[in-house]
Amino acid sequence: MTTHRKRLGRGGRYSARIVSALTLGIVIPSVQPVLAQEAAPTATLPAVEAVGTTPLTSTGLPRDRIAGNPRSFSAADLARDGAPNLVDTLVRLSAGVTLNDTQGNPFAPDLQYRGFTASPLVGTPQGLAVYQNGVRINEAFGDTVNWDLIPSIAIRNTDLLGSNPVFGLNAVGGALNLRMKTGFDTQGGRIDLSGGSFGRVGLAAEYGKQVGNVAAYLAIESLNEDGWRRFSPSRARRLYGDLGFRGERATLDLSITAGSTALGGNGPTPVQLLAANRRDVFTYPDRTYNRMTMVQANGTYEIAANWKLEGNAYVRSFRQRTLNADIAEFERCDDDDLAGLLCFEDGPAVTARGGGPVSADLLGDGVPGVVNRTGTNTTGAGGAAQVVSTEPILGRPTRVVFGVSYDHADTDFIGSTELGVVTPDRTVVNRGVFVDSPQGGIADVRLNTTNAYWGVYGTGTIDLTPRLSATVGGRFNNANIRLRDQIGTALNGDHTYSRINPTAGLTWRPLDTVTSYVSYAEANRAPTPAELSCADPLLPCTLGAFFLADPALKQVVSRTWEGGLRGTLPRAWLGGRTTWNLGLFRTDLSDDILLVQSEIQGRGFFQNAGDTRRQGIEAGLAWRTERLAIALDYALIDATFRTAQRLPSPNHPDADANGTIPVERGDRIPGIPRHRIRFDTEWRATEAWRLGGTVIFNSDQYLRGDEANLLKPIAGYAIVNLRTSLAIGPGVELYGLVRNLFDQRFSTFGTLYSLETASALNLGLSDPRTVTPGLPRAFYGGVRFTF
């Protein structure tokens, strides 16, 4: 195969029609205010006066005192494209956010911010902390984030922030802070019915009511979809409820969040198969079943003037079952002493539970396959409390927060591999025999883990002058992780990680309309139980499945510098209100953890991979009048390795005899596009009718497994989305959405697979690249009732 070393990949060529659409999206709306002088104001993002800078917060800091570039989104933003959607809103309105469709399911994406990931897939190193009402909802076993379980309609507002140690473990790249609705801030009801392409049918409903100092809120969401690829149906059911009390000095909210989902995710498919049919999948089935229930209490108490106590407590139950089919590296044994039995390729005989050999006759003339199953049961509980003071110091306005938190979780994990046969349509049919062959890297797993995380934090902001503010803070994190093997002793281990992480920043307002800032922050991420249990290259794990050894891993430490400017222009400029921002950031990670490929098909292991860096530029410009809103966002994410090394990648065509490739200092980290552009516009044609559109551009990215940047990267892409809504009567609104208007063929994730193993399928495959195709053109619509 021809290889290329290419440090600064470009996004490839895009059709002229996409460029034309972008041009029309800018030019045509720009002349429309002349035609629309009498209409009502556009429903746009309301100005956010304060941003939550701690997980537990009822007030937050004024934006112009924050030494960073936080992004805030309202409930109206989440519903701008129709049915409320958290992930889509983050992508549409922030160039720093992008999605990698690792699993091939739209409800379970990998979300990236500044090159750091929050993913539902165990096997993806996580770098973002996600909070809901002050509770960290990264799952205990792998720090994963299950986006499919978050009820978007119940979100009141969202803050997306850069690295901040106050947000505890995993905030090495940033934090997402969700605050949910209550009956005090959401009055009345709304019903949203939607449907569209690929069998999608959805229902979202909410209702809130206040009676005196008591209020209640309830929201439900239901979604079904057949999926656009073969064998990819999904369903989701979500619920959120809150009962709140407001007194003269105290508040209390009791809430429940629940979800049940069944997701079909077929993941990457060889590029040669997709060239013939974009709907194709490699092997099937691939299913994930999630169930979650969380009960939470949040309260505040005004201790005295300028002093407040805030706290929460929660109990969370999470249950997950996965089923994944794959090709197996089995064959009839060549050794005469093992005639009639099944062996690993160039390896020992395959054994079943109990130690007995496996007969090759179970396969008949079929191609060997496996059905991998996992089960994860986690019960967690914890809480946090903080004291907030706004008492002036030396006569200067000041906000000081001191807090503590504790999170405990117990997890039972099981994993098994069942022998199967691959049918002509590449469905794997199980044969009822479970493989248990530690000598070949496949064995049953039963593991119990305990996480105990506690932290102490503080942060203070003081106005040194009317225009200069300073922030200092920090957090001490302590993580104790206990692993106990329920079958043998190989997985047993006790691990403790602790660290003090400081932060400091300055904001200066040289003009009433301009804020400049500079900040520094450190944060750490402790290895998860999943990573600690899958760190032996001799006993690799299925991606997101099995755990067979317990070598220690080092914790990841991040050091982030950030600086920039943001502000507004005079309202008279072009007849509208203009906001802008320009910022730089650099995050250096020590002992970064990566999942690297194993020689065994579909398996990998975690290892510390030296130092890495994410640095870049964030720039934005937004302009709006009463009729028109235009926003342009750009992000440069330069993500590179800073340590020269050889990393395992046995499926790489340029791998050496040991299955490794040479990674040089400065090579790009796979899966992270360097350039991202978001253009969004909305025009209110009449008081009742709105039109809008978004252009999303991501440049190229390297495949996972090509950390040396030797192969052709996944091409960049640009897609155009359109939306419209029409109020047809009091409280009744119709809306429509077109995704990927020009049916652009694109991919958001790619990796490498074993051509030798796949040769048993007789498909004539010669290219080891496998990618997840992006959504084709799709149409969605719905009706919204408000009462």
Distance between the termini: 63 Å
Specify Rg, calculated over alpha carbons: 26 Å
Strand content: over 45%
Protein structure class? mainly beta
The total tally of domains equals 1
- The name of the CATH topology is Maltoporin, Chain A
Low-confidence stretches: 1-48, 543-550
Count of separate DSSP helical elements? 6
What proportion of the residues is helical, as a percent range?
Answer: under 10%
Let me know the number of strands: 43
CATH class: Mainly Beta
Please state the overall shape, judged from the principal axes of the Cα atoms. globular
The CATH architecture can be named as Beta Barrel
Quick check: average pLDDT? 89
Say which CATH homologous superfamily is assigned: TonB-dependent receptor, beta-barrel domain
Major sheet: size, sense and barrel closure? 22 strands, antiparallel, barrel
Structural topology:
Layout: H1 16-30, E1 50-51, E2 61-62, E3 71-74, H2 75-78, H3 86-93, E4 97-100, E5 110-113, E6 116-118, E7 128-132, E8 135-136, E9 155-161, E10 174-180, E11 188-196, E12 200-211, E13 214-225, E14 234-246, E15 250-264, E16 269-270, H4 271-276, E17 286-304, E18 307-327, E19 330-332, E20 342-344, E21 367-389, E22 398-422, E23 428-435, E24 445-463, E25 468-485, E26 493-511, E27 514-525, H5 529-532, E28 541-542, E29 556-569, E30 577-590, E31 593-597, E32 603-608, E33 612-624, E34 628-641, E35 645-648, E36 660-663, E37 675-684, E38 689-698, E39 717-729, E40 732-739, E41 747-752, H6 755-758, E42 769-773, E43 778-786
Parallel strand pairs: 7-10
Antiparallel strand pairs: 1-2, 3-9, 4-5, 5-6, 7-8, 9-10, 11-12, 11-43, 12-13, 13-14, 14-15, 15-17, 16-42, 17-18, 18-21, 19-20, 21-22, 22-23, 22-24, 24-25, 25-26, 26-27, 27-29, 28-32, 29-30, 30-33, 31-32, 33-34, 34-37, 35-36, 37-38, 38-39, 39-40, 40-43, 41-42
